[in-house]
Task: inverse folding
């Protein structure tokens, strides 16, 4: 069975190392699937020839054929339209030559390409939404909610949902929203596959300790990932400041590829002593080492309608390494997972009172020690195992291939 996976994220980007390649390498190895990957690569990553050669070999070893197109960023909107049509003609050629029967589109731009391909050729179309992109962009201030671009985007979203043969979403919350409020084709199945993690790679490690990082006996609050657009990093700094006032040994560890100076400025502007903040630029394969010498993982997002579709990969990674989590309310399915399994705390509001309540709840929870770490790991195994995700994708492929 021949499948083409299209991603607007480059295969060389960290997110694909976590939420793309591990899935399809396994599916290619273990299933009767011939998988090709078409990705849009950014210049900054293409310049790293060593990384590109390494990934090319890895994909070849896993019998995945990799096709690359250049990602265009400027001018806004026009560059994306260009990529859609460039991708369309390239995909049409690939599908014809390779006799591909299923095109798996990761997010909206690849879905637009696939939707157009489906109008020309007989293929099955999987719309792997990854989130509510149009609403995310509006809430992130990229364009105005209710404006012309927003309205066009929402119309395109409806067309993609109606045109797809299978829909994949990250949370039960958005799955129910789509089933209840959208008109889908009869027989179109909506499958929930959250952001999962390789539980062999992400587990408690002893290779690095707090002493190695110069943190001694500090209580380490760790944050991994980006700091802008959809993330409330300012709120996170406010929370840490409240915590440090009550717990002087508290220390903030930030694992991010964002400019360190930007992170330091936010912290300093909020009145946080930079001696209490450590910033590390860590590659994905070394992330478990740093998480393992932390005490609690933080994940703060801006409020918004689109947050119901969010499944934070950092949540899965924290739990897999045995870390309890503090995350704000309104983010995907996280409340039910965290509260039912007692593996963290929900921050109800970004206010001094909310921060104090969350810290108090965490302090009580952390008294459990190793028992809490084991429960966090068990929760990751139940909800966020990459094996579960691979099995669900395999089922979708087989169903579409036989229909």
Result:
């Amino acid at each position: 069975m021949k499948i083409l996976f299209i991603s607007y994220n480059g295969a060389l980007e960290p997110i694909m190392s976590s939420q793309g390649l591990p899935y399809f390498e396994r599916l290619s190895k273990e299933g009767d699937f011939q998988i090709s990957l078409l990705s849009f690569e950014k210049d900054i990553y293409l310049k790293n020839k060593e990384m590109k050669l390494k990934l090319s070999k890895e994909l070849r070893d896993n019998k995945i054929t990799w096709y690359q197109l250049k990602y265009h960023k400027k001018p806004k909107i026009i560059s994306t339209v260009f990529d859609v049509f460039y991708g369309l003609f390239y995909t049409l050629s690939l599908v014809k030559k390779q006799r591909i029967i299923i095109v798996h589109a990761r997010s909206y731009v690849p879905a637009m390409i696939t939707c157009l391909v489906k109008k020309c050729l007989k293929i099955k179309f999987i719309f792997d939404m990854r989130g509510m992109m149009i609403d995310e962009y509006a809430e992130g201030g990229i364009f105005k909610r209710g404006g012309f671009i927003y309205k066009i985007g929402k119309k395109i979203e409806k067309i993609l949902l109606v045109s797809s043969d299978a829909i994949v979403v990250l949370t039960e919350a958005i799955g129910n929203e789509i089933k209840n409020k959208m008109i889908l084709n009869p027989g179109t199945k909506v499958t929930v596959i959250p952001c999962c993690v390789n539980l062999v790679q992400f587990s408690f490690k002893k290779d690095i300790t707090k002493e190695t990082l110069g943190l001694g006996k500090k209580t380490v609050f760790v944050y991994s990932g980006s700091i802008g657009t959809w993330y409330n990093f300012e709120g996170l700094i406010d929370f840490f400041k409240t915590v440090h006032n009550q717990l002087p040994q508290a220390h903030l560890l930030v694992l991010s590829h964002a400019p360190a100076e930007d992170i330091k400025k936010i912290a300093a502007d909020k009145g946080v002593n930079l001696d209490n903040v450590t910033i590390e630029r860590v590659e994905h394969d070394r992330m478990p080492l740093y998480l393992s010498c932390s005490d609690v993982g933080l994940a703060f997002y801006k409020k918004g309608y689109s947050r119901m579709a969010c499944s934070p990969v950092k949540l899965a990674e924290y739990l897999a390494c045995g870390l309890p989590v503090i995350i704000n309310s309104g983010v995907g399915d996280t409340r039910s997972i965290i509260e039912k399994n007692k593996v963290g705390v929900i921050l109800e509001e970004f206010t001094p009172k909310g921060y104090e309540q969350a810290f108090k709840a965490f302090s009580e929870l952390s008294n459990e020690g190793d028992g809490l770490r084991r429960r966090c790991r068990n929760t990751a195994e139940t909800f966020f195992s990459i094996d579960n995700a691979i099995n669900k994708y395999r089922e979708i492929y087989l169903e579409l291939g036989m229909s």
In short: The two ends are 13 Å apart (CA to CA). Residues 168 and 191 are 5 Å apart (CA to CA). The mean pLDDT is 93. The domain at 219-383 is CATH 3.40.50.2000 (Rossmann fold).
